[in-house]
């Protein structure tokens, strides 16, 4: 295979890769460089961020000193852990925001009362098309392209078997 041809196919592969993959998920570090600690207004922090399905929220804190509980609204309002939906304590916890809904996180060792609580609303990805407004041909083709291009082996196979050019 000629080098020029390889470069052309590589270019096409990169373009398809960039177009077909969803935008990178954002990691929202709670409290930014202040982390997960007492005395921080996390309402202000949350107001400065926009959360989409698939994003991560991450808590950075002194391990063994604090922790993170995912609770419901009652737990958030009252700083209680009943019916907690999850808990983390590694000191560097990454939590995937899988659903479009309001999430509630609190510190489980009493410091919730001191303000170690944060709630975020996670919105649907703006690029996810409402299915009813799209014809099936377009979305079908997009989904096949996405599936194919989202595997690096698929890309490499495409370059070297030359199916695109
Ligand atoms: C955080 O800041 C908001 C907006 O200034 C304010 O309404 C809220 O009371 C503050 N929360 C705390 C716990 O200080
Ligand atoms: C919100 O973001 C703006 C712009 O980056 C910044 O100036 C401001 O300090 C931020 N506020 C908080 C509470 O993080
Ligand atoms: C939780 O707090 C609310 C007020 O924010 C109160 O009305 C309610 O009774 C409390 N629930 C429990 C279970 O303590
Ligand atoms: C939160 O969970 C507790 C315990 O399961 C439950 O009693 C409470 O009603 C729930 N609150 C909400 C708002 O769902
Ligand atoms: C914390 O999470 C573990 C599993 O990850 C669970 O077994 C445990 O019951 C949870 N603790 C509370 C208080 O929810
Ligand atoms: C989000 O989804 C992943 C994989 O589907 C799962 O491992 C993870 O536990 C989920 N996270 C939450 C907070 O539900
Ligand atoms: C798209 O496919 C669904 C079933 O998969 C069908 O119900 C719907 O009528 C189709 N829409 C169009 C515009 O062909």
Characterise this structure.
It contains five helices and eight strands. It has two domains: 1-22 and 142-165, no CATH class; 27-123, Sandwich (Immunoglobulin-like). The radius of gyration is 22 Å and the shape is elongated. Helix 1 (3-20) crosses helix 4 (136-149). The strands form two sheets. It has a five-stranded mixed beta sheet with strand order 2-8-7-4-5. A three-stranded mixed beta sheet has the order 1-3-6, with no helix packed on it. The model has no long low-confidence stretch (mean pLDDT 81). It is α/β, with parallel strands linked by helices.
In brief:
The protein is α/β, with parallel strands linked by helices.
Annotated CATH homologous superfamily of the largest domain: Cupredoxins -  blue copper proteins
Number of helices: 5
The spatial strand order of the largest sheet comes to 2-8-7-4-5
Quaternary structure annotation: single chain
CATH class of the largest domain: Mainly Beta
The fraction of residues assigned to DSSP E strands is 15-25%
Helix percent reads 25-40%
Number of domains: 2
Which whole number gives the mean pLDDT? Answer: 81
Radius of gyration from the alpha-carbon trace, in angstroms: 22 Å
Question: Which small-molecule ligands are present, each listed once?
Answer: 2-acetamido-2-deoxy-beta-D-glucopyranose
Largest sheet: 5 strands, mixed
How many strands appear in the DSSP assignment? 8
Inertia-based shape: elongated
């Amino acid at each position: 295979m000629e080098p020029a041809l390889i470069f052309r196919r590589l270019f096409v592969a990169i373009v398809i890769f960039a177009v077909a993959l969803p935008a990178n998920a954002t990691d929202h570090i709670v409290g930014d460089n202040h982390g997960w600690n007492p005395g921080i207004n996390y309402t202000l922090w949350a107001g400065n961020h926009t959360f989409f399905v698939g994003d991560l929220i991450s808590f950075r804190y002194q391990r063994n000193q604090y922790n993170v509980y995912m609770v419901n609204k009652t737990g958030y309002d009252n700083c209680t852990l009943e019916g907690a939906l999850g808990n983390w304590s590694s000191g560097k916890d990454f939590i995937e925001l899988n659903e479009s809904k309001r999430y509630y996180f609190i510190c489980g060792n009493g410091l919730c009362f001191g303000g170690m609580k944060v709630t975020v609303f996670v919105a649907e990805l703006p690029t996810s098309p409402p299915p009813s407004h799209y014809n099936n041909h377009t979305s079908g083709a997009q989904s096949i392209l996405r599936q194919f291009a989202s595997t690096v082996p698929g890309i490499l196979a495409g370059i070297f078997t030359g199916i695109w050019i």
